[in-house]
């Protein structure tokens, strides 16, 4: 265990402003000389198990995404949602401890420099809500795990398996916080996904989410019990199948 | 969950602007205590309703009161049950950052619940006065606050005065493409401004340089989100949210003056001081 570190604001600004100048470092080098010399080691007050991050698998696919999310979720389990929106923590991780993973996962050796710079900006920096939640190489994994834990506190892996099974499901649940951030609805959707395998076929999940949005507007589901939620979601699924 | 202020319902809802319950009111007043460094925030205040019929639904357990608390930036979307009267909500433990929306509500907790208030507008027929479990019976106005450190960042931290050989003497331009806003000036003006920033008259820069710069920046933020990933954008957004400034529609001059704490007043003070 070691203290979780983040970079100083000037370092963060310089790295973002100078992506083009640092392309070789992103492609095949590292930032260790800069890290040793500059303001790269501001400690947070709690420990993180950064050794675990060495096990991140750089190949794509939902199985790896699930496992990687669990690894990051456990390694950074003391990070709060407020801190998890801090760009400078994620910049440190993607440029130092997780550089190798971030490079292999998100950069391609044969990319032209312009595309490479764009991808570096997208996956090595986390300045906005969507950048942090959906794009940054490491923070997206933390947010996957956090959202799964919010939905199923006792078994986030169970929720992760469904949320990350298809890009459409992550998009529907995670990228639509009006639904995914409400644990009672999130849990119901996970139960339905486990029960109805057809929900992941074709575009049905997207149609189902649309129906749910429409039918569920203006209802405080938080006072419902699980069985009433399940009935409602099944009805939305039936309606979605008819469209 | 968040109910949009524009939402309408097929049944009567006691809320400002609906007129469904005549002059009856449901009000939430909160003060926010925040320690942004540690991520602690607490909400204290009162929630009050003056319709006895809804009060009796609450007393009988046929409805529940609560707060809908939404913070998109931290993926928080909670319904917190609480009784009318004094309200105390603990949001500590790093749960909020950025805009936080809070709205009080009374929600039906059973199906086929008849709303029997004598204040309900007569245009609602009997069948429209029946609500189901989860339906809103009353809504307060939505309150909003800005959580986190960004709003406290000094504006100076997002401006960078930069020497630019090609600039005309006496003029400046702004460049929004970097993480901080770059104010480009010619060499001799750069020297003068650098000197002035360390001088007792430095406040004259607020109205002569920063006021037009902030207006331009606000205009750029209004027209497109292309700069949303820049650090300066995050700080400006947080400052605007904290000051209640509507970036999209607010008057540029009014907004810029507010953000700079009314710089012409500072200019006046400088001249009074030097004239004395």
**Biggest pleated sheet of chain B:** 5 strands, antiparallel
Quaternary structure type? heterodimer
**Count of distinct strands of chain B:** 13
Largest interface: A-B, 37 and 42 residues
Mean pLDDT of chain B: 93
H/E topology pattern of chain B: EEHEEEEEEEEEEEHHHHH
Q: Round the mean pLDDT of chain A to the nearest integer and report it.
A: 93
Termini gap of chain B: 59 Å
Q: Tell me the strand order in the biggest sheet of chain A.
A: 1-2
Major sheet details of chain A: 2 strands, antiparallel
Q: Which percent band covers the strand fraction of chain A?
A: under 5%
| Estimated radius of gyration of chain B | 25 Å
Order of helical and strand elements of chain A: EHHHEHHHHHHHHHHHH
Helix proportion range of chain A: 55-70%
Low-confidence stretches of chain B: none
Structural class by secondary-structure content of chain A: mainly alpha
- Structural class of chain B, by secondary structure, is alpha+beta
Give the overall form of chain A: elongated
Task: Determine the number of helices of chain B (DSSP H or I, runs of at least 4 residues).
Answer: 6
| Outline of chain B | elongated
The unreliable regions of chain A are: none
